[in-house]
Write a structure and sequence with these properties.
The complex is a heterodimer of chains A (495) and B (380). Chain A has 495 residues and is mainly α. Helices cover 72% and strands 6% of the residues of chain A. Helices cover 69% and strands 4% of the residues of chain B. A two-stranded antiparallel ribbon of chain B has the order 1-2. A two-stranded antiparallel ribbon of chain B has the order 3-4. The chains are: A mainly alpha (495), B mainly alpha (380). At the A-B interface, α2, α3, α4, β2 and α12 of A face α4, α5, α6, β2 and α14 of B.
């Protein structure tokens, strides 16, 4: 029997690692673009000021980069250590993007990071600039592949189940790469990194302005960051819109949970906060049609028919067909050597019900509902904070262009205090994506409880607390070092 | 004709190549193991840290890619070994995680633990990572305590495919002397390579002299361990696979593999010769600094040959002592033909990646690292 505690602790450990990893990665993605833009200005103008500005942010980038790498390696290996069944059951598909990520992206990042950081005096100016851009591009390419892998877990495509090897096998690589969920996920995640980088740079620059230090440095940094951040946020909004449409299409339960929508239908309302709704808004967002049908949690559990006549099975029917698939699988395995004809019959039953294979592991339909309150609020935090940050960046840029920003001390305080908010939004986004998918590790195919490794709860608890200690220690040290480096400042004006 | 079997062998070749490159790049760990032993003064220690610090990401990335490539090509290994020998892999990861932050943190203001602590982390990773990785690879020859039952997926209450047979989860590997010898051998090799790399990369006569002394001791120990391991490899029972896929014990299997695959034997011998020659010339001629460029490729060749011995010629590369039939072979643990074929196309980029890494390595290391450079430029 797979213990619930084992599944929960394994999930918690993965969530911990992924959550920490996503504290460092978005800053890497965003700061890379900001400092590469700054260095481009340096190369174009030859102004030493921009070189020093670039170098200061590069120093911050490096402090952050190392911890991102450290948490990333654990994440990769945890698929094997804690989700061993998963690793075999879908490794034929899932391993490929991970390997490609290493070959294409990580070596690029590692190589050009060293040139960028240590090569100022060793390679030409233009060459150095190229290395800075390539470090950022390497980071973005790594995001492409890991998000293709993640998108496949949300919307599995391009594979077939093989009962002889007992796994899903890839049959269409390009379906995997151009999975619509992957495309919007890539833009949504990478551009949210631009937002993070921008808010980070604006917040710290605001501190300098409040301290009346490094004024030119701070204002110039704010200008570059705000432009990158506004572009990024707009892209986040557009990709967020298509993510919503994809959720409605491929993961209706996630959408229903994110909305706390129990009974759906056409003209479904969007909930601003509990009790305050905009009529028909959810239908518009999810289907781009006022009359679009959006199923609620109960509809999905009880089964429903969309206006175009397509019938969706109830949870009980899916579970039943899942059980049929699992039984057919077991008989096929048993009979394939002794009685090929009976095995062929079992195989056919399996193929007819394979779509619901994962449901066979589900004990009751309640299991199929993700934690609604958490997902509902995480979604709202993500969207509202994102909207607030966009306004903030527009106002900051506008005032900076009019040369009034440095006197608006309250706004500088707001900007500085917004740094934690952008991280909160990023974490909330991943909670929507990952908690919203529960109980599935691969939507509809494999529930978390059938994916976990066979280790004892105590073992996972031990490594969980070990990682809590290590990551927290690193986070504290990183923040201390950054704060010291920021207090010390770029010292441009004294030179 | 590119058959499924060919693709499985091709991918094992790539795993061997990545494994070989990884052990070569463990010179970063080996160098760090010497921070306190060969580096007598602060400036010498700083030189060592900054010299390995410009390469550590390559080692780290190779480890990550080794994991990713293994996952993509032989996922049953990924699920069986990582989920089973849990503690070994977690320990390896933890030492690398401490290493990853230690360079950046060690000399920065506000780092909480102080420079010395972070250098101790680097030294610990330097000693333990090669030891643990080596010990884990030792089990490729001696076997581990696990069972694999793919049919378990049909069991709703208990669908786990790969199960470990004991609660030590991999730590029991140290009970077998061969694994420990293997681990120690890899450690001594890594430290020797580290010394060779630093002699080449750092421009300091005094440090070079201390490094040569460390090299002599560590390489001497390596040679002893190498002989012991080779003797065991030649005489031990190996895990052979017959035409029907059944695994059985065969006396002298690994030696037989060398005899039956002369190309692998030649690779092993040429690797060993290059490795020894690189060290011997370095020790004999005080002005010779290029030993790493002989011993490094030698290491790659020798490690590749060992991977081929344990994977090719009908051998179970990750054998189970609990249940011979559960042993992993290239045939029963690989990805599907489609995936291997697709990834084989992807792998064509590898020479290009190696080429640009080599090009930038040369660009960055035209001049050896000096204390003067550390005073004027960026440093850890």
């Amino acid at each position: 029997m797979v213990e619930t505690a084992l599944v929960d602790w394994s999930r918690l450990q993965f969530a911990l690692t992924a959550g920490y990893h996503w504290l460092f990665v978005p800053l890497t993605l965003g700061l890379a673009v900001i400092m590469a833009t700054m260095e481009s200005i340096y190369v174009a103008t030859g102004d030493e000021f921009w070189k020093r500005t670039t170098k200061f942010w590069m120093k911050i980038f490096a402090i952050n980069f190392a911890v991102g790498i450290a948490t990333g390696i654990i994440l990769e290996f945890e698929f094997g250590t804690n989700w061993s069944n998963y690793s075999w059951f879908v490794g034929d598909i899932f391993g490929a993007p991970l390997a490609i990520e290493g070959i294409f992206a990580f070596f690029m990042e590692a190589t050009f990071f060293a040139v960028m950081f240590f090569g100022w005096e060793k390679v030409s100016k233009r060459f150095h600039l190229a290395a800075t851009w390539l470090t950022g591009i390497g980071a973005a390419i790594s995001a492409v592949w890991i998000l293709i892998a993640n998108a496949w877990m949300q919307n599995p495509v391009g594979m077939e189940f093989n009962p002889d090897t007992v796994r899903h096998e890839m049959v269409d690589f390009w379906a995997l790469v151009f999975n619509p969920v992957a495309v919007s996920k890539f833009f949504h995640s990478v551009f949210s990194g631009w937002m993070t980088g921008a808010i980070f740079v604006i917040g710290i620059s605001s501190w300098y302005l409040l301290k009346r230090r490094e004024t030119r440095f701070a204002l110039s940094s704010i200008r570059v960051a705000a432009i990158v951040g506004i572009v990024g946020t707009l892209a986040v909004m557009f990709s967020g819109d298509s993510s919503g449409v994809h959720a409605a299409k491929y993961q209706p339960m996630k959408l229903a949970a994110a909305e706390g929508l129990e009974e759906g239908g056409p003209r479904a309302p969007f909930s601003i906060v509990p009790g305050v709704e905009i009529p028909a808004m959810l239908s518009i967002l999810a289907t781009h049609d006022v009359d679009g049908y959006v199923p609620g949690i109960n509809n999905i559990l009880d089964g429903y028919t969309t206006p175009d006549g397509e019938r969706h099975l109830s949870a009980d029917e899916k579970i039943e067909r899942g059980r049929i698939a699992l039984e057919a699988f077991a008989s096929y395995r048993e009979l394939k050597d002794s009685d090929p004809e009976a095995a062929a019959v079992a195989r056919q039953t399996l193929d007819e019900n394979i779509e619901y294979f994962g449901y066979g592991y589900i004990d009751s339909k309640e299991e199929l509902v993700p934690p609604v309150t958490l997902v509902y609020w995480a979604f709202r935090v993500m969207v509202y904070v994102g909207g607030f940050l966009l306004m903030l960046m527009v106002v900051v840029l506008w005032l900076e262009r009019r040369n009034r920003l440095k006197d608006m001390r309250w706004l500088l305080w707001v900007a500085m205090l917004s740094i934690p908010l952008v991280y909160l939004a990023g974490q909330a986004g991943w909670i929507v994506a990952e908690v919203g998918r529960q109980p599935w590790v691969i939507d509809g195919l494999l529930p978390v409880k059938a994916a976990v490794s066979s280790v004892s709860v105590a073992v996972v608890q031990t490594t969980f607390w070990l990682f809590v200690a290590i990551f927290t220690l690193f986070l504290v040290i990183e923040m201390r070092i950054m704060i010291k480096a920021i207090k010390q400042g770029p010292n441009i004006e004294t030179k | 004709m590119i058959t499924y079997e060919f693709l499985q062998h091709y991918w094992w070749f790539l795993i061997a190549l990545l494994g070989g490159l990884l052990v070569f790049l463990l010179f970063v760990q080996g160098g760090n193991a010497l921070i306190f032993f060969a580096g007598k003064s602060e400036s010498e220690r700083q030189l060592i840290v900054n010299s390995t610090g410009r390469k550590w990401e390559l080692t780290f990335t190779t480890l990550v890619t080794f994991g990713g490539a293994f996952f993509a090509s032989f996922p049953l290994f990924y699920s069986t070994s990582f989920g089973g020998a849990y503690w070994v892999w977690i320990l390896i990861l933890v030492t690398f995680v401490f290493q990853a932050v230690s360079y950046e943190f060690q000399s920065k203001a506000g780092n909480l633990l102080g420079k010395r602590t972070f250098r101790i982390f680097l030294t610990l990773n330097g000693c333990l990572a090669p030891l643990l990785i080596g010990t884990a690879v030792g089990t490729f020859f001696t076997g581990s305590d696990f069972t694999v039952n793919k049919g378990a997926v049909g069991n709703i209450a208990s669908p786990v495919i790969s199960r470990w047979g004991n609660e030590w989860h991999g730590l029991e590997a140290v009970a077998n002397p061969f694994n420990v010898e293997f681990g120690l051998m890899v450690t001594m090799l890594a430290v020797s390579l580290g010394a060779l790399y630093l002699i080449n990369n750092v421009d300091s006569d005094k440090l070079a002299q201390q490094l040569r002394r460390s090299l002599m001791v560590c390489f001497g120990l390596f040679l002893i361990l190498f002989v012991v391991v080779c003797y065991n490899l030649i005489t031990m029972e190996g895990f052979a696979v017959d035409a029907s896929g059944e695994v059985f014990m065969q006396k002298g299997k690994y030696f037989a593999n060398l005899v039956e695959m002369p190309a692998v034997l030649a690779l092993l011998l040429s690797g060993a010769v290059l490795l020894v020659v690189g060290v011997v010339i370095t020790l004999l001629r005080k002005d010779f600094k290029r030993g790493i460029w002989l011993s490094g490729p030698g290491t790659v060749f020798a490690v590749m040959a060992l991977f081929m011995v344990v994977g090719y010629n009908n051998t179970a590369y990750y054998p189970s002592t609990a249940d011979l039939a559960s042993s992993l072979t290239l045939a029963n643990s690989s990805s599907s033909e489609f995936t291997l074929r697709t990834m084989a196309v992807v792998s064509l980029i590898i020479p290009f990646v190696v080429a640009y890494i080599a090009y930038f390595w040369r660009q960055m290391d035209k001049k050896s690292l000096t204390t003067e450079e550390l005073e004027s430029g960026e440093k850890y």
